[in-house]
Amino acid sequence: MEEKAAAVSPKIFPASSPKRPPRTLRSHFGKYLTIVVGAVIAAAGLEIFLIPNQIIDGGVVGVSIMMSAVTGMPLGVFLVGLNLPFLYIGYRQLGRSFVVATAVAILCLSLWSEVFAPVPRITEDFFLAAIFGGIIDGIGVGLIMRAGGSLDGTEIVAIILDRRTVFSVGEVVMFINLFILSAAGFLFGWDKAMYSLVAYFVIAKMIDVVLKGLDESYAVMIVTHHNEEVAEALLHRLGRGVTILHGAGGYSGEDREILYSVVTRLELGKLKEVILEEDPEAFVTIHQIHDIVGGRVRKKAIH
């Protein structure tokens, strides 16, 4: 069923807030404090869980861990040295803000890895080390990414290739990490490479949790002939705001009003129940969304 949306009506909910002033010194401080805290957490996950058990992360961090193990040189030397070319490329292609944040994160990780290196490992169980090291490392990396930085120069390459090739950022990163984890198999043994794959998966999931939150959100579009009733029901029974879009049927040309709202995963069942009670013939599409910026409306109690 095709619908074409036109102008958005502020019929039910308040208009957007006025423009905010430029980034202040306080917000800069908060950004870099988050990066420093993230680097401390990531270093703890690496040095207390993963590295002592010869389990590696992906990207430049993983290569640095392997080179440190082979040469005996500090991990921080390779973290900084191997990332320098990527930082230069990123500065030319992606801008100063991202690269500065990434450089701060890498320097902090290098310093804190030396602080945590003498700390004895908590567990000698490889699976537990992969799980808990991945959780801690993923939280740290997620905080850094949430603040606008990165710990891995390969992500810079992936972003650039995403713009110039048919491959996505995730595909490029995964392709690179397959080679890195394969190299770990030759160096540490294939069992350690498989544990590293487990850690890599846990790290990726924890990054998603930090960036997106535990409660997934969904965008809902509702095409109904009872838009007023459905909108009122969603507002008063579900406690969720609704925006009304004006559209027309692509085949019939009939004017329609489309309801748009955002709910959490736990509210989907109640949402469907409310809509079908008001209009059993309503057409509803539900899409998962990854982030929401601004425009939040305080929830009312659910009835």
| Tally of DSSP β-strands | 5
Q: Which structural class do you get from the secondary structure elements?
A: alpha+beta
* Count of helical stretches: 10
- Write the H/E string, N to C: EHHHHHHHHEHEEHE
CA-atom Rg in angstroms: 24 Å
Average predicted local confidence, pLDDT: 80
Shape annotation: elongated
- Strand order, main sheet: write it out: 1-3-4-2-5
Helix content: 55-70%
Q: What is the first-to-last residue Cα distance?
A: 31 Å
Strand content: 5-15%
Main sheet attributes: strand count, strand direction, barrel closure:
5 strands, antiparallel
Give the low-confidence spans.
Answer: 1-21
Task: Write a compact overview of the structure shown.
The chain is α+β, with helices and mostly antiparallel strands.
Q: What does this entry look like structurally?
A:
The chain is of the alpha+beta class and 303 residues long. A five-stranded antiparallel sheet has the order 1-3-4-2-5, covered by helices on one side.
Short descriptors:
single chain; about 300 residues; alpha+beta; 5 strands
SSE diagram, text form:
Layout: E1 3-9, H1 25-50, H2 59-71, H3 75-94, H4 96-116, H5 126-146, H6 153-164, H7 169-188, H8 190-212, E2 217-223, H9 227-238, E3 243-249, E4 255-264, H10 268-278, E5 283-289
Antiparallel strand pairs: 1-3, 2-4, 2-5, 3-4
Helix pairs in contact: 1-4, 1-5, 2-3, 2-7, 3-4, 3-6, 5-8, 6-7, 7-8, 9-10
